[in-house]
Design goal:
The structure is a homodimer of 244-residue chains. Helix content of chain A is 48%, strand content 11%. In chain A, strands 3-2-1-4-5-6 form a six-stranded parallel sheet, with helices on both faces. Chain A is elongated, with a radius of gyration of 20 Å.
């Protein structure tokens, strides 16, 4: 039930990985399993972590985000850190690790289902996420949340231009758009840059590449919550305070 | 300039890989390079081809389409066909092959640019393609064709349901939609199934997994061309003959 004209927000958009469902923890688990696999070659966990990080960042322009890119980077990190000593059978193990990331159960964050269901009664909801298209579709289907979202946008990167194109495509005014996510760099900054609103919800781990800071001049459109259970009240408060 | 009401087709949609630009030839080149890389291990080209095909098909449900999935399948095929004897340095070579597929130049098919430019003057054009989202965006940008397409849909699979959802989303009537592509299985059958029109344009090579046959009862909405230069006349003929 939309009450048009009474709402500040026309659309409430959510990041998916680590905002609706757990994701980074699977990457961290895979990385820990990789370190275990490479330990017999005399490679320590920190060396694996450093190599994987620099390889992932170097691969971003070519491979992009998601579990398939991560798997290829894990293989390269295995070869690099073992100076090419890694056996083919262990590389097959790395691929198995990667595939398990593409088929794991979807675990929703706390309060996710009831918050999304509640906000869907009053607002149009959207997902804007990076990652492998097929994997995100799989996770959305497995999440049981599909019915609540009117639009799902899987994008290759989350730049200001990408958000701007999405708002334009759907005819959404930037000042009536709010984005919720766990990455300042991908979910918050570009949205504030457009003149939209942003709600930051930190996840307990984050990929170092996503870390960034919020500029002071946009703080009035920037909010923070600890968990999704706080979102409905926050949205109500934002709308009451900012509707003219 | 759209002349609404005079046109049979509201939207003309194109597959991208091997319909607008060359793609399968890059896969075949990579496969040939893989066979060359594995020859010193005593593996012949046919063994590589067979292993790669069965691994790719087995990986489809988990990894989907595109160059990253193909690269992971090439690595698995290397391990399998050499019974694990492949050296890490050669696996790094396989990854390099895969990355070169994600950065090669985009070569348009014959007559592509002028045909697309001409049809864009009279019809709304759309791209519907499988593959890695980021890679397809890269190729579209590099193709110089972006300006002619009003909508670009990168999908994880091309089923009847997927086409149906796209038409519904954009409010396109199935009987006013035509799809052009090189895969009977992905571009033609699901579209005919919906009651839409289809133009098949065979490419000189096709992945065996895409091969299929057109049912007789849909033949009146099925057309075939040899190259894109024939498309504008065909569309004109279809519209003249079938507009009531």
């Amino acid at each position: 039930m939309h009450k048009e004209g009474k709402m500040l927000f026309e659309t409430i958009a959510f990041d998916a990985d680590d905002t609706l469902w757990h994701s980074e923890s699977h990457y961290q688990d895979a990385q820990a399993a990789l370190a275990e696999l490479l330990a017999p070659y005399g490679v320590d966990a920190e060396t694996v972590q450093d190599a994987l990080y620099h390889i992932e960042v170097a691969n971003l322009p070519t491979l992009g985000y998601g579990a398939k890119a991560f798997t290829l980077s894990m293989i390269e990190a295995s070869i690099e850190t073992t100076s090419g000593r890694i056996r083919a059978a262990d590389i097959q193990q790395v691929i198995r690790l990667g595939k398990s990331m593409l088929s794991h159960d979807v675990q929703l964050l706390d309060h996710c289902h009831e918050t999304v269901a509640r906000l869907a009664q009053s607002h149009a909801l959207m997902i804007i996420t990076k990652g492998d298209l097929m994997d995100q579709e799989r996770k959305l289907a497995a999440s049981g949340l599909g019915q609540y979202f009117q639009r799902v946008e899987v994008v290759s990167d989350k730049s200001t231009e990408v958000y701007s194109a999405i708002l334009k495509k759907h005819g959404i005014a930037p000042e009536r758009f709010v984005m919720i996510g766990n990455s300042i760099r991908s979910d918050i900054l570009p949205v504030l840059d457009l003149g939209s609103w942003a709600v930051y919800m930190p996840y307990h781990v984050i990929w170092a590449h996503e870390v960034a800071e919020v500029p002071v001049e946009t703080q009035e459109r920037f909010f923070e919550i600890d968990h999704l259970g706080q979102l409905p009240e926050l949205v109500e408060r934002m709308e009451n305070e900012h509707i003219s």
